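Researcher: Sequence recovery benchmark, item below. Answer with residues only.
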């Protein structure tokens, strides 16, 4: 009798499905049809792969890094990209295996609009430019500014989620050289490259909450309360070296 029970139990266990991974199998035609109008991934990506599709993935997971880390967008799926994907997966309730396949891509599709911006941000929030509403007149071409801003947007989408999906209000982003001068901006301000955004205080997160969470959203420049002229916003930006300051946090 005991033998029959053991065998029956074993049979039931063998009948159970294997533990699911985040992205089993390859990207199928059905997966591709489920994509939106922005960008469609046509293969599963993992450590060791490279290409423009990896670049597109890196832009979207750039805000899912360790504290103090800045993900290099170079089209090479290395350890840093693997870890960023793993954190993205964990953040959205997927199995965190660091492999980007259908489930990871479908979550990204859910999070983006057809112009490749994340659903909670738009270019209209970033291109005020002293009322010009464009990306002209900066230190780089408008096309380059647009790409720089898009990366900022995806980092902010990650930051927003880490703060409990509380809204973030962008009060200033791209400025032309003349606009930057007229508002008293630094002569080396990242705003002129489209590599910075200022977050206002009219939404739920506090300055110190935004400052702290931004450390693990891939931003190299973070300025907040106590830093000169930053008591009414938090400044986040991308640059080659790290500088964080918010003495009042």
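Model:
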């Amino acid at each position: 009798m005991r033998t029959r029970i053991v065998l029956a139990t074993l049979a039931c266990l063998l009948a159970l499905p294997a533990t699911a991974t985040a992205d089993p199998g390859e990207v199928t035609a059905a997966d591709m049809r489920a994509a939106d109008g922005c960008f469609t991934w046509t293969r599963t990506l993992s450590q060791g792969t490279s290409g423009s599709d990896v670049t597109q993935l890196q832009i979207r997971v750039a805000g899912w890094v360790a504290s103090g880390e800045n993900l290099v967008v170079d089209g090479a799926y290395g350890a840093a990209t693997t870890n960023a994907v793993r954190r993205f997966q964990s953040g959205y309730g997927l199995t965190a295996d660091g492999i980007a396949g259908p489930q990871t891509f479908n979550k990204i599709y859910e999070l983006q609009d057809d112009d490749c911006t994340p659903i909670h941000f738009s270019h209209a929030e970033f291109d005020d430019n002293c009322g010009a509403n464009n990306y002209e007149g900066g230190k780089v071409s408008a096309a380059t500014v647009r790409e720089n801003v898009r990366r900022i947007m995806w980092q902010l989408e990650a930051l927003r989620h880490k703060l409990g999906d509380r809204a973030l209000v962008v009060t200033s982003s791209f400025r032309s050289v003349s606009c930057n001068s007229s508002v008293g901006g630094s002569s080396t301000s990242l705003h002129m490259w489209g590599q910075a955004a200022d977050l206002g205080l009219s939404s739920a997160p506090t300055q110190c909450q935004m400052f702290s969470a931004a450390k693990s959203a891939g931003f190299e420049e973070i300025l907040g309360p106590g830093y000169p002229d930053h008591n009414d916003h938090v400044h986040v930006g991308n640059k080659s070296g790290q500088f964080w300051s918010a003495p009042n946090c």
